[in-house]
């Protein structure tokens, strides 16, 4: 089946395709902007500190300030919204208030716009529970399927979904929800970035003569898992936004292969040029990066200087806490893609290739030596 996601008129898609990417400088949002530009869409990019980019109109607005949003969006006429913004709060109650509110206020500020579809990216915390009870309470069996009922625990993804459903009803657009696993992609200064975190860990290990130690749990080292490349997430969101089969549905979205970290870790080490003798797997206890790497962080500025890297502030590159949380889960986490495939989305990525391509891109952009 051929997917038509180009802005050509068809019997089932509107003639004009103008995308508003909300959170466009993030790991998901920036891959979406790339993909939409490749497809020839008109693209408007919203964030608080927009990155200027050829062929993209930028809107600077704070999603937590409804007045600023109304003013910034008053003249905008997007047909499709891709919502990829979030802000981590200290408690799930605050996550719900802030992140649910951002979806509500953004869509309210677009009540004048000719919206055909709004796509929202969430994640596997839908099944695993919120950060404060992450992979720790009652959970559905793996692989996770979309039709599982919500958990009893409060969750900001549920609040965002509910705001989306209510606005769709009120404003007459179709919606889709995209539940991704750990996202790997290209962003700097964002909240959760496993690819860049591992690349920075490997760089410190090579430069300082350290072991390259897997930080996670036995279950993650030995069990099956999967992952979401930001490029495939972008393709999935555009597919759902432009296909009748994608309308008013929630979908999981992962690369389509499964792997074990005990297989992947040495391969990533090789792609990052780590001496095989310094590669250490799970050896009986988790070794979180927040503890492993804290004392070496101050070396980064010197490494950046020596190799002419673009970012001297390691805190804008490595999100140790998040990689620790994902690799520290004490259960297997795999994701079913059957619903997407049955609906016509058949794209896939090989995860090792996605990592290798990403590391090449980090090198080309002088983020790592
Ligand atoms: N990254 C992962 O591994 C992963 C995995 C599974 C699920 N998810 C989920 O995917 C969704 C998107 O996450 P992400 O990782 O793509 O996000 P991200 O890389 O941290 O990017 C967040 C984006 O939102 C913008 N933003 C944040 N607060 C804003 C505000 N108040 N007003 C306007 N813009 C704001 C940021 O730009 P400014 O700071 O310039 O405003 C940035 O463009 C989240 O729900 C996340 O939980 C992520």
TrEMBL record:
It comes from Curtobacterium luteum. InterPro entries: NAD(P)-bd_dom_sf (IPR036291), PRISE-like_Rossmann-fold (IPR055222). This is NAD dependent epimerase/dehydratase. Pfam families: PRISE. Residues 78-369 form the PRISE-like Rossmann-fold domain.
